[in-house]
Amino acid sequence: SGGEPLILPLEKLRKLLLSLKEIEHVEVIRIGTRLPVVLPQKLSGRELLSLLEEAEKVWVNTHFNHPDEITEEAKLAVRNLLKAGIPVNNQTVLLKGVNDSPEVLEKLLRELQKIKVRPYYLFHCDPVKGVMHFSTTITKGLEIVEELFKRISPLAIPYYAVDGPGGYGKVPLMPERYKKEGNRYTFKSFNGKTFKMEDR
After folding, report:
1. Sign of CA dihedral 29, 156, 164, 187
2. 194 CB neighbour count, 10 Å cutoff
3. What is the pLDDT of residues 162-180, one digit of tens each?
4. What is the full DSSP assignment across the chain?
5. Which CATH number does 5-175 carry?
6. What pLDDT is attached to residue 193?
7. 61 and 54 Cβ atoms separated by less than 8 Å
8. Dihedral sign of CA atoms 32, 14, 88, 26 in order
9. Averaged pLDDT score across all residues of the chain
């Protein structure tokens, strides 16, 4: 929705990033990009990588949505970012008919972990004109997340989140795992077993 920042002319990008670097209270410059997916070759040249490295505060959030997008070229692009000292996270959008099953997401998340990309967010599809046919229900999203906890390490499970319209921001969602009665909690693990603990 915001365009692709890493295809800006290099000098314009340099001016922006180095200006942001000089702002003391800016601790992280987060760049969301599909470049490793759609134009991974751009991350094989030293010029762009050197600039991202020089900017120091840069973190890259990629947008892999399906395991088929993790090609050999994409892996090389990610490896080049990591070699330049740039942390890489991933933001996936939950898309009906594309990745809205535990099997597809499990494969995607495992592949991301293998290439040292942290699965960061799984976004519920925004209610935007023109993409509503890709939208699943929030209930289905929660069911998928519940199933993922049974299949893979929590290290590979992203935050499932909705982006509140009108500037409310991102709200992480989790399957309900507890019930409180007085000062006693009943917890339900992802394997379906329950146990109780007192709130001391």
Report:
1. negative
2. 11
3. 988 777 888 888 877 778 8
4. ----GGGS-HHHHHHHHHHHHH-TT---EEEEE-HHHH-GGGGSSHHHHHHHHHT-SEEEEE---SGGG--HHHHHHHHHHHHTT--EEEEEEE-TTTT-SHHHHHHHHHHHHHTT-EEEEEEEPP--TT-GGG---HHHHHHHHHHHHHHS-GGGPPEEEEEETTTTEEEEE----EEEETTEEEEE-TTS-EEEEE--
5. 3.20.20.70
6. 84
7. no
8. negative
9. 93
Residues 6 or more apart whose Cβ sits within 8 Å of residue 70:
64, 108, 111, 112, 115
Please state the domain extents for the chain: 5-175
Residues in the chain: 200
